[in-house]
Design a protein that fits this description.
The protein folds into 2 domains: 57 residues, no CATH class; 67 residues. 55% of the residues lie in helices and 7% in strands. It has 3 helices and 4 strands, in the order αββββαα. The protein has a two-stranded antiparallel ribbon with strand order 1-4. It is elongated. Bound molecules: zinc ion (ZN). The site of zinc ion has 8 residues, from loops.
């Protein structure tokens, strides 16, 4: 009898359900310290389900994840500026290649903008959680 990946994950979760977290692991949503709670459970502060089982780590926060998305945001701003420059130069005199380049960079910027915004929001949430952790220590 072979177990599927889901069955193995479920069995591993069941093994860890009765074990308690010994070190400081924080809720990925609100930053609540999950120490002394089961590895697979839900945050008592915000109700978010988490899985702090080693090699899984879903719904938990590790302070080293808080890297600012500088390169992603900078790249997006450069693309937006380049698109603006290409559009500005595309009509005096008319140049189809600059218009095409500006259009492609604009499409890329529009597609990447929500991703960059999501990264910035995640970073700001992580900073807020770190501040909360530091206040509790
Ligand atoms: Zn929480």
């Amino acid at each position: 009898m072979t177990l599927s990946e889901q069955d193995r994950e479920r069995q591993s979760d069941e093994i860890y359900t009765d074990r308690l977290i010994r070190g400081s692991v924080y809720c990925g949503t609100c930053g609540y310290n999950l120490r002394t709670l089961p590895y697979v459970y839900q945050c008592p502060e915000c109700g978010q389900r988490y899985n702090a089982r080693p090699l899984t780590m879903k719904g938990v926060f590790l302070p080293q994840q808080a890297e600012p998305p500088v390169s992603q945001v900078l790249f997006l701003l450069v693309c937006m500026a380049a698109a603006g420059v290409l559009f500005f130069d595309a009509f005096t005199p008319p140049d189809i290649w600059r218009l095409l380049g500006g259009t492609l960079l604009t499409i890329f910027s529009v597609v990447e903008c929500p991703k960059a915004w999501h990264s910035v929001r995640r970073y700001l949430l992580a900073r807020a959680i770190i501040r909360r952790i530091n206040r509790e220590i």
